[in-house]
Structures are given as C-alpha cells and as structure tokens.
Design goal:
The protein has 311 residues and is mostly helical. It has two domains: 131 residues, Cytochrome Bc1 Complex, Chain D, domain 2, CATH 1.10.760; 131 residues, Cytochrome c-like domain (Cytochrome Bc1 Complex, Chain D, domain 2, Orthogonal Bundle), CATH 1.10.760. It is built from 14 helices and two strands. Bound molecules: heme C (HEC) (2 copies). The site of one heme C has 26 residues, from helix 13.
Length: 311
C-alpha cells in the first residue's frame, strides 16, 4: 500500500512539477570581478561617440532595464528603429534583439557600439579612449591579462548582464509554496494558460525562448495605420527566409507590467492594451475587461527584485 502510494507520488508528483509551464527564476554562475568591471562599462558614457550615452541611458536599471519611450535616443538624439527591450533576465533569451540578430549577450555588445543611432563609434576608437584611463586599464588587466579588446570588453559586460536577474517575484514564491497570490492574479494565470498565451510566453522568462509571427490571426501591420518599416520584417532581416517575415523573438514578460511602451514598434502604451492586442492578433480572441485586468494582475506578480532597482 505504502509502496503503491510512493510510486504514485513519484510519478504524478514529478509530472505535476515539470508540467507547470512557468518556472521560478534563479541566479546563474558568474565571476564577481568581471561583473564589477562590466558594471562600470555599462554605465560608462565613454563607450559612445562624444561621451553622450551609456548602455544605462537606454537600459535604465532603476526601473525595468529599459527606458520609458517607444524609441530610444542614441548619440546626437538620433532615434532608434525599435523599442528597447529590458536587459533584466536577458541571459535566459535564446537570442538577443527582437529579430535575434545576436547569438548571445557577448555578441550583442557590438551592436550598440557600431549602431549609428546608438553609440555611433567603432571598437578601435572606443578601445583607444579607454586605454588612456590608466586606473581603469590597470584594474581591467588584473582580471583580463590580455587587456582591452572587443572580446574582453564584451565578455565583462555580458558577465554583468548575467547578474541582472529579478528574483523572488510573488508568482515565483507562490509556485514554490512560499507565498500567497491574489485570487485575481491566479485567475489571470489560469486564463494565460487557458487561452494559449503560454504557447509562446513560457519557461523561466515567460518568453524569450522562441520566435513567433506578429499577427497570427489578423493583419497587425495592415491595421496599425503606419507604413511598414524595415525593422517590421523582424527575423526575416536575419535569415532572409520568407517564413520569417514579421516574426520576432517572443519577449520575456517578467517585467512587462513595469513597461510603458509595448511591442518592437512601441506602438502600444498600456499593459491591458497590449494584452488585448495579443489576444486579438495572436489568438483570435476578444477578452472582457475583467479578463484583461486579471491577466495584468498575473503579469504584475511576475515582477521580481534586484538590488539595482529602486522600485
Ligand atoms: C540608444 C539606446 C541604446 C543603447 C545606448 C544601448 N541599447 Fe541595448 N538595446 C536598445 C534597443 C533599441 C534594442 C533592441 C534592438 C533590436 O532589437 O534590434 C536593444 C537591445 C539590447 C539587448 C537585447 C535584449 C533582448 O531581449 O533581446 C541587450 C542585451 C542590450 N540591448 C544590451 C545593451 C548593452 C550592453 C549596451 C551597451 C554596450 C546597450 N544595450 C546600449 C537600445 C539601446
Ligand atoms: C503566437 C505566439 C504568441 C501568443 C499566443 C501570445 N504572444 Fe505575446 N508576444 C508574441 C510576440 C512575437 C510578441 C512581440 C511582438 C512585437 O513586438 O511585434 C509578443 C509581445 C507581447 C507583449 C509585449 C511585451 C513587450 O516587451 O513589448 C505582451 C505584454 C504580451 N505579448 C502578452 C501576451 C498575452 C497576455 C498573451 C495571451 C493573451 C500573448 N501575449 C499571446 C507572441 C505571442
């Protein structure tokens, strides 16, 4: 009898645990000395032309790891082509950028450096500038004996980004049986699964692990009311495959409730508006206001903490 129960518990207990499609966030291994150097570089405006902006100008860590605009301003106030995503929890993404053009965090660093709408510089110029700072160079060389290069600078920044994980979200604590969750948020989670948001937004980061077309059940771009821009082609710009047109990396939703603009084009500026658009264009559904609010409450419960955050 006891044996039977044990076998049952083993089978179904483990099935239940692994069947939950969202998992709690956890920290990942990283090197503290590299994290410290990476942090310095992340906030250093000398990485950009004329010392105008740093990574942190667009990825504001005190809020949600992005800025509160639809399009970020790079050097000389130039506006970017897409909305800045958060850097928090980005280590869990299968690829970086909306179209996945960077294979990992380290590869991503070159994009803002060379982008004329972001840092508008080059590695040789940037390295020459930093090499003049004797104190920084000494500290850097103690950790990276080969000194400053695109490889070592990118590595340090990527290490810092690996440390940007938001822990102890109310939802995670509830999943682990360590905290309670409001009825409304629980209902939101149920709807999130029931309607199929979970088919795309899943795993630790509630997204970030696959690509999907924007507008599965409707012509999102046709209805948007603004002309299609090159960035709207998404993953197609990287692969050239017809099937990848209008396809984007499914964004992680861990900090979605903190955002003020949504989607790659920053076209939506309310959370319930974004959920409504998703229901309509990705699932062919029309949700009630109460359902939208329940899902918003669930998304709010996904917001964890990090020491860089002030709220
Ligand atoms: C001028 C604003 C701006 C600056 C400066 C900037 N970024 Fe970004 N960042 C963006 C935008 C916009 C995107 C989206 C780009 C795309 O998808 O093509 C992005 C994407 C990213 C991503 C991918 C996140 C994801 O979920 O795909 C990471 C990581 C990142 N930036 C880190 C950095 C780092 C590190 C620096 C400094 C070396 C930096 N950014 C500088 C605006 C900026
Ligand atoms: C078919 C896959 C798919 C489904 C189903 C889906 N999404 Fe999305 N979601 C995406 C993609 C892809 C994007 C990015 C689209 C873009 O930027 O143009 C996105 C973006 C979002 C955003 C904006 C995040 C940001 O950083 O701007 C929110 C919020 C969101 N989804 C919530 C939901 C909710 C809630 C549901 C269920 C009602 C849902 N999604 C269903 C694929 C999906």
């Amino acid at each position: 009898m006891i044996l039977k129960f044990l076998i049952w518990a083993l089978l179904f207990g483990s099935v239940w645990v692994s069947a939950e499609p969202i998992l709690p966030l956890h920290s990942v291994a990283t090197d503290a000395r590299k994290v410290a150097l990476g942090r310095q570089l992340f906030f250093d405006t000398r990485l950009s032309r004329n010392n105008e902006v740093s990574c942190a100008s667009c990825h504001q860590l005190t809020t949600h790891g992005a800025d509160n605009t639809a399009r970020s301003k790079g050097v000389a106030g130039r506006l970017g082509d897409v909305k800045a995503p958060t850097v928090y929890n980005s280590v869990f993404n299968i690829r970086q950028a909306w179209d996945g053009k960077a294979v990992d965090l380290k590869a991503q660093v070159t994009l803002p450096v060379e982008n004329p709408k972001e840092f508008a510089t080059s590695w040789p110029v940037l390295i020459a500038t930093l090499n003049k700072d004797k104190a920084f160079l000494d500290a850097f060389t103690q950790v990276y004996k080969d000194g400053l290069s695109s490889d070592t600078i990118s590595d340090a920044i990527a290490h810092y980004e690996r440390s940007l994980i938001t822990l102890n979200a109310p939802f995670d604590l509830w999943l682990q049986g360590k905290g309670s969750l409001s009825e409304q948020a629980q209902e939101g989670y149920r709807l999130f699964k029931y309607y199929g948001c979970i088919n795309c937004h899943q795993g630790k980061n509630v997204g970030g692990n696959m690509f999907a077309k924007m507008g599965t059940f409707g012509d999102y771009f046709g209805d948007r009311g603004t002309p299609i821009e090159p960035a709207d082609y998404g993953r197609y710009n990287v692969t050239g495959r017809e099937a990848d047109k209008f396809t984007f990396k499914v964004p992680g939703l861990r900090l979605a409730a903190r955002q003020t603009f949504f989607f790659h084009d920053g076209s939506e500026h309310s959370l319930t508006g974004a959920i409504n658009t998703m229901a309509r264009y990705q699932l062919g559904r029309s949700l009630s206001q109460a359902e939208l609010e329940a899902i918003a409450a669930f998304l709010e419960s996904l917001v964890g903490q990090h020491q860089e955050m002030t709220q």
